[in-house]
Structure formats: C-alpha cells, structure tokens
C-alpha cells in the first residue's frame, strides 16, 4: 500500500522538476544570448577605447602580456581606461610609459614569499 503511494509521489515530483527545467531552459538561452551580446559589446567598446589611448607598440606589448598573464593585462587595461576617463591621460600612451606603468603596478602588487622549514622531532633524537 505504501509502495504505490510512494511511487506516485515520486512521479509527481519528477514531473514538477521536468516542468521547471523545461520552463527554465526556454528563458535561459535567450538570457544567455543577451548576456553574451552585452559582454561582446562591452569588450568591443573596451578595445576601441584602448586603440584610441595606446600606441600600436604599447597595444602589442599589452597583447603579449595578456597571452602570459590575462588577469594582469586586464588590470593594466582597467587602470589605463580609468585614467583616460578621468582625464589624466592627455596624449597616447607610448610603450615606454606603459612599461613604467607596469613597473609601478608590479611594485604595488608584489607578493612576498616566505618559506618556513619545520623539522619533525623523532622519538630517537637526543634533543
């Protein structure tokens, strides 16, 4: 008697879950497409701004940095774009100026590595 009731409850729950997934998937691709489009547009805007601010050599150097350390390149791009929006950058950023900016960022964000060696105490040691 409990077995058919339990099976009916499971079937109902499974149908509810399937209905929720079906309704969620209908909106999900549309939302994903809209989000991807917004991301693509934002990235295009970002590249246009950087093309206006950086010289071709500086853009090439930043692209090489992005290959090795994408998060660092993104941070440098953010700093440059923010400075341009505030008005701190009056002319195009040259490769030399980009290098000095990178050095400043490196000195601010260097992580200190500390290694501590702890020896295990053995039962047979005479300490």
Task: Explain this structure.
The protein has 127 residues and is an all-alpha fold. It is built from four helices and no strands. Helix 2 (56-68) runs antiparallel to helix 3. The longest helix is centred in the first third of the chain and has 52 residues, at 2-53. The radius of gyration is 28 Å and the shape is flat. The mean pLDDT is 84.
| Straight-line distance between termini | 73 Å
Quick one: biggest sheet? none
Q: Looking at the structure, what is the overall shape?
A: flat
Helix tally equals 4
Cα-based radius of gyration, to the nearest Å: 28 Å
Low-confidence stretches: none
- Residues in β-strands, percent: under 5%
Q: What are the secondary-structure elements, in order, as H or E?
A: HHHH
* Count of individual beta strands: 0
Helix vs. strand class: mainly alpha
| Helical content (DSSP H or I, runs of 4+) | over 70%
Average of pLDDT: 84
What's the topology here?
Blueprint: H1 2-53, H2 56-68, H3 70-86, H4 95-109
For the structure shown, list the relevant keywords.
mainly alpha; 4 helices; 127 residues; flat; 76% helix
């Amino acid at each position: 008697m409990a077995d058919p009731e339990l099976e009916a409850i499971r079937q109902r729950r499974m149908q509810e879950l399937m209905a929720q997934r079906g309704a969620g998937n209908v909106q999900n691709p549309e939302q994903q497409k809209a989000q991807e489009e917004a991301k693509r547009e934002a990235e295009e805007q970002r590249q246009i701004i950087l093309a206006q601010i950086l010289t071709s050599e500086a853009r090439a150097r930043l692209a090489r940095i992005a290959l090795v350390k994408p998060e660092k390149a993104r941070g440098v791009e953010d700093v440059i774009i923010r400075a341009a929006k505030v008005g701190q950058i009056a002319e195009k950023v040259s490769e030399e100026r980009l290098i000095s900016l990178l050095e400043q960022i490196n000195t601010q964000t260097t992580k200190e590595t500390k290694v501590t060696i702890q020896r295990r105490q053995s039962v047979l040691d005479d300490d």
